[in-house]
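Below is a filled-in request sheet from our internal design queue. Each sheet records the structural input a requester submitted and the sequence that came back. We keep these sheets so that new team members can see what a complete request looks like end to end.

REQUESTER: design group, bay 2
PRIORITY: normal
MODE: inverse folding
CHAIN LENGTH: 150
BACKBONE (tokenized):
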């Protein structure tokens, strides 16, 4: 396995409810050639608050603006809400690969939020792949909109 250095660094993190899905995605993305940094948690038994996990990811992405993030909790909603508190993050809770593509293209999301309780792991991997491979449409109107929320 060789790492494709042209691909963005991917930070991945979860609360205790998302550990299984996170570890699966970590392995699959590494095998796909991504540089993936596991920010925790890896403990299924000790509850962790999702805002604390999102804060760790936000700090790492602040230092690496070209990176992408994947956050996982039971519903995905908590991580999405927590991530969007940070001006440099644009998170979306995604359930389908087409949604990941469109959210990247239209809104330049840089954080994918997934619901461990509700998504099939293979669909989650397809969502992650699509999120990481899809471009942002850098037309004037989309850039203007992103600047307004950043």
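RETURNED SEQUENCE:
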């Amino acid at each position: 396995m060789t790492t494709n250095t042209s691909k963005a660094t991917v930070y991945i993190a979860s609360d205790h409810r998302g550990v299984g899905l996170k570890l699966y995605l970590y392995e699959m993305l590494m095998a796909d050639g991504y540089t993936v940094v596991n920010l925790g948690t890896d403990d299924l038994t000790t509850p962790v608050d999702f805002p604390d996990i999102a804060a760790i990811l936000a700090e790492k992405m602040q230092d690496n603006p070209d990176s992408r993030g994947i956050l996982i909790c039971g519903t995905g909603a908590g991580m999405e809400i927590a991530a969007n508190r940070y001006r440099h993050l644009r998170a979306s809770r995604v359930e389908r690969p087409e949604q990941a593509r469109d959210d990247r293209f239209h809104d330049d999301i840089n954080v994918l939020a997934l619901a461990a309780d509700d998504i099939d792991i293979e669909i989650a991997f397809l969502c992650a792949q699509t999120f990481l491979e899809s471009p942002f449409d850098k037309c004037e109107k989309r850039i203007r909109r992103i600047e307004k929320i950043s």
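SHEET NOTES:
- The beta strands are 10-14, 36-38, 68-73, 91-93, 111-115.
- Residues 114 and 126 are 12 Å apart (CA to CA).
FILED BY: M.R.
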